[in-house]
Amino acid sequence: MLRSLGVALVLIASAAAGADTELERTGGPYVPTPTIVVDQMLRMGSVGPQDYVLDLGSGDGVIVLTAAQQYKARGMGVDIDPMLVKLSNANAKRLGIDDRVSFEVQDVFKTDLSKASVITLYLLPSMMSNLKGKVFLEAKPGTRVVSHDYVFGDWPPDNHITLDVPEKEKINGTPRATIYLWIVPAKVAGTWQVQVEGAQPVELAFKQSFQSVDARANAKNVRAVYTGLRGKDINFTLMDGSARRHFNGTVDGEVMHGIVDLGGGKTAKWTARKS
Q1: N or C, which terminus of the chain has less Cβ within 10 Å?
Q2: What is the C-alpha separation between 147 and 217, in angstroms, rounded?
Q3: What letters, b where the CB count within 10 A reaches 16 and e where it falls short, cover 139-165?
Q4: Where are the domains of the chain?
């Protein structure tokens, strides 16, 4: 199968049309995507029946088609090549899954990312870097983003795996493929009023760079010693004098809520609102 790097240089062979076609484009080349890479991308994205998979630069549609066939997911692929989009839609119909997946001629930079729970990409590094801000701002917190071989500039991945793929050596000179995973984090930068049941509120100021978050307490004798963020899940530890309080919770827009471990087997509910 062939899979686009987002913008095609040459298209050879359109099985659906029953004829060989060569189409000159600008950008990166088409490359074969081995089945092992497709399968690993979907596994790393934890794709399941409840997911909506959005493939940016979908080429012949193999990612979305496989997600629908093997994992019963719904989804859409976008590509700027009308012939590839036509081929992908024809294959979806042939496979009897056109009620769950579709393909559209569309610029990836204009695609609405908000309805996706999983986003897949196989795009050139320059396009990845240019898409970084769009993905971070538009995709819902918790969205799994999976890329083949390339990263989002300085946005560190949450996980990655390298596979031995001997057939790739003829294409790009290396017999390996690396699959990267990002979990889109909630947006928490700013000042929050944290309220624990039965206690005085504490003001926390969060600084954020993607999933990396630091917190500072604007209260005497209170300091934040740890903060973690993965998707909508947040945890942080506050030291109040010698007392350690560990907070676990969920970010829901401009509200947080969860459970705080007070020590000695005691817990309490907590909430936070953005100032």
Answers
A1: C
A2: 37
A3: bebbbbbbbbbbbbeebebbeeeeeeb
A4: 2-183, 190-274
Q: What is the pTM of this model?
A: 0.88
Cα-flanking dihedrals φ and ψ of residue 14, to 5°?
-120, 100
Can 2-183 and 190-274 be said to share one CATH topology?
no
The CATH code for residues 2-183 is: 3.40.50.150
User: Are the beta carbons of 243 and 224 closer than 8 angstroms?
Assistant: no
Residue 104 in tokens = 């559209």
H-type alpha helices, the chain: 35-44, 62-71, 82-94, 125-138, 169-172
Q: Residue 274, SS3?
A: strand
The string over 89-116, giving b where at least 16 C-beta atoms fall within 10 Å of a residue's C-beta and e elsewhere, is: bbbbeeeebeebbbbeebebeebebeeb
Structure tokens at 244: 């350690």
Task: Out of 3.30.450.20, 2.40.128.20, 3.30.559.10, 1.10.10.1100, select the CATH number for domain 190-274.
Answer: 2.40.128.20
Q: For 139-173, what is each residue's pLDDT tens digit?
A: 999 999 999 999 999 999 999 999 999 988 887 78
Q: What angle do CA 94, 18, 73 make, to 5 degrees?
A: 25
Q: 49: left (phi > 0), else alpha (psi -120 to 50), else beta? A: alpha
